[in-house]
């Protein structure tokens, strides 16, 4: 049963359930967090089930428990669970129910963040690309179309989570309504409608919001007036941030326990920038200080990997900065799950503040070099484009979301009139990165900040028309900031292509998301041309499998697909020059790796590494 008692200074949410021994279990929020009526300090760590292979979940969760933690926290990204509208997927790495049950079996409580928007440096902040098919949709607002789609998703998701609540004998003690909304909007009715939908479909555990720990963000992003727990996000200056949270709550007549829902122990990284590191001793001291003041969730405990095309992007005034494939985050566990110096020092800090906690030595793992193997076959994308996917014809160019999944690449092919001299070309309203080929010859690459600038491209062949191919890459949608509702979130060529002073008509669209079905249709006999974007196939045998890294330092830019699984992007921009390959994606016996290289760099071999490779 659930009861709620509110006065001017506190909120009491008493949640009780009978376990197998008929012992009452309860989680309460008064002036402290209470479990079975006893004060409890929440020591939590973030592990994203969708960034880690399923066979690694147990080791990561065990290591969190061994750290001295009692709780695990995870986001739930909408876009992986509803990849196409009305089509839902909760299998494999997307099996949130199994992840939560596994956490419970190891004695961990669980905090879930199933909000429509998650940020998390994840593509589009977790929103599905198909939302962009709706003209003028206003995301993260009371837009009726948007809220209807949120409710349709929650109607499918929440019934899976309800049995996991502590009221039903599960480990879930809290759920989030929205994420850092105070750093984006201030529409309280949107938060209320989201809360109402969650409650409508059976969520009874306490709800919370999390925002930056300053008054403007807390005021705009919280529902404190509706008795929804307020938490903060920060990674240092604990005393000052806790004081700001306490002051904000007191201003609204509340005296709740303080919790940092994201205690940043590292940071994410962008292409072309140095790896960001945090001093382990500094972190341990800050964690100790925070635990003396309240509860915390280490973000991240185990970061994992942005597999496939799910990396997010940072907004900039001109253009954007996409984030790298690795989500190592300089966390307590490395990308591959190995405990770090931070782990050891934070474990000691926890013990100093909470001497009664259970701790143990963490599980270690091995990452191995698995050899190097020659490329067996290769083919130019331009020669095999017609076998990969059914082309879609249109007078004017269509956005990636209109004709495909909205992820990966789109190849636009057109027949231009040949003036047998320099051609003036201009791309109008296009995102994000475009490579231009005339009759298969590379001409130029443009990014968001350059798109719209006129190009002079040469062509002297005595033909009436020119085959022009434009390879557009979605580098990752913005996951945070002022460009979240921006037109640049829709990818591909949307305005058009101008030849001389007029817009060209007549386009063939080839959406390229590298699904298993699409990869099976690559025709390696169609003809090599290493100067064009190309596929390279490597076939090799392994007597055993192990976690490993693929060395991409000799490549240009592209993706690596192992036995049908897209490991993510590599790029000579750095700062990383390798891709993490879990043993889960490899096989004893024959393996197939496909490398899609876009920069005209000939890929000659596949090389494994026992360590990640960074820019020096």
From TrEMBL:
Residues 397-513 form the Beta-galactosidase 1-like first all-beta domain. It comes from the Bacteria. The active site is at residues 180, 262. GO terms for molecular function: beta-galactosidase activity. It catalyses: Hydrolysis of terminal non-reducing beta-D-galactose residues in beta-D-galactosides. Keywords: Glycosidase, Hydrolase. It is an enzyme of class 3 (hydrolase). SUPFAM superfamilies: (Trans)glycosidases, Galactose-binding domain-like. Residues 533-591 form the Beta-galactosidase galactose-binding domain. The keyword Hydrolase applies. This is Beta-galactosidase. The lineage of its organism: Bacteria, Bacillati, Bacillota, Bacilli, Lactobacillales.
């Amino acid at each position: 049963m659930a009861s709620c008692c509110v006065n001017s200074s506190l909120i009491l949410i008493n949640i009780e359930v009978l376990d197998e021994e008929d012992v009452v279990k309860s989680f309460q929020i008064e002036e402290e967090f209470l479990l079975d009526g006893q004060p409890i300090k929440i020591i939590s760590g973030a592990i994203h089930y969708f960034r880690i292979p399923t066979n690694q979940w147990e080791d990561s969760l065990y290591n969190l428990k061994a750290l001295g933690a009692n709780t695990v926290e995870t986001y739930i990204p909408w876009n992986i669970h509803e990849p196409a509208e009305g089509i839902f997927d909760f299998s494999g790495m997307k099996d949130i129910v199994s992840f939560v049950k596994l956490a419970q079996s190891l004695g961990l409580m669980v905090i879930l963040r199933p909000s429509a928007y998650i940020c998390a440096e994840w593509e589009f902040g977790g929103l599905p690309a198909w939302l962009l098919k709706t003209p003028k949709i206003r995301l993260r607002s009371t837009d009726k179309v948007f809220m209807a789609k949120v409710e349709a998703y929650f109607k499918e998701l929440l019934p899976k989570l309800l049995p996991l609540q502590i009221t039903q004998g599960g480990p879930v003690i809290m759920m989030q309504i929205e994420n850092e909304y105070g750093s984006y909007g201030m529409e309280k009715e949107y938060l209320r409608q989201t809360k109402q939908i969650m409650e409508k479909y059976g969520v009874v555990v306490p709800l919370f919001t999390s925002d930056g720990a300053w008054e403007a963000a807390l005021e705009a992003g919280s529902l404190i007036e509706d008795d929804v727990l307020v938490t903060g996000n920060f990674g240092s200056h604990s005393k000052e941030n806790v004081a700001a949270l306490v002051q904000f709550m007191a201003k609204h007549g509340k005296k709740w326990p303080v919790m940092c829902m994201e205690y940043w122990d590292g940071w994410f990284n962008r292409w072309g920038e140095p790896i960001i590191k945090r001093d382990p001793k500094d972190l341990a001291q800050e964690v100790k200080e925070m635990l003396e003041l309240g509860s915390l969730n280490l973000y991240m405990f185990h970061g994992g990997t942005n597999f496939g095309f799910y990396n997010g992007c940072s907004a900039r005034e001109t253009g954007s900065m996409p984030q790298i494939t690795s989500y190592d985050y300089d966390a307590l566990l490395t990308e591959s799950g190995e405990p770090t110096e931070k782990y050891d020092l934070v474990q000691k800090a926890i013990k100093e503040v909470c001497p009664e906690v259970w701790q143990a030595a963490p599980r270690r793992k091995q990452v191995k070099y698995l050899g190097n193997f020659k490329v067996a076959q290769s083919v130019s994308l331009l020669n095999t484009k017609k076998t990969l996917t059914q082309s879609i014809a249109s007078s004017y160019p269509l956005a990636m979301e209109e004709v495909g999944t909205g992820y990966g690449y789109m190849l636009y092919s057109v027949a231009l009139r040949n003036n047998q001299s320099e051609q003036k070309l201009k791309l109008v309203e296009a995102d994000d990165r475009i490579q231009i080929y005339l009759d298969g010859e590379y001409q130029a690459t443009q990014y968001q900040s350059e798109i719209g600038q006129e190009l002079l491209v040469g062509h002297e062949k005595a033909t009436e028309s020119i085959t022009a191919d434009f390879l557009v890459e979605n580098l990752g949608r913005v996951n945070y900031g002022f460009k979240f509702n921006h037109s640049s979130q829709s990818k591909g060529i949307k305005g058009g292509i101008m030849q001389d002073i007029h817009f060209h008509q007549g386009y063939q669209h080839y959406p390229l998301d590298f699904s298993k079905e699409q990869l099976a249709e690559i025709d390696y006999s169609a003809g090599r041309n290493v100067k064009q974007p190309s596929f390279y196939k490597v076939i090799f045998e392994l007597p055993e499998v192990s976690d490993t890294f693929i060395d991409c330092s000799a490549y240009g830019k592209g993706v690596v697909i192992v036995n049908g699984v897209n490991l993510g992007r590599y790029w000579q921009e750095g700062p990383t020059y390798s891709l993490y390959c879990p043993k889960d994606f490899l096989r004893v016996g024959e393996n197939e790796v496909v490398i899609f290289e876009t920069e005209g760099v000939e890929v000659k071999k596949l090389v494994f590494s026992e360590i990640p490779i960074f820019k020096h």
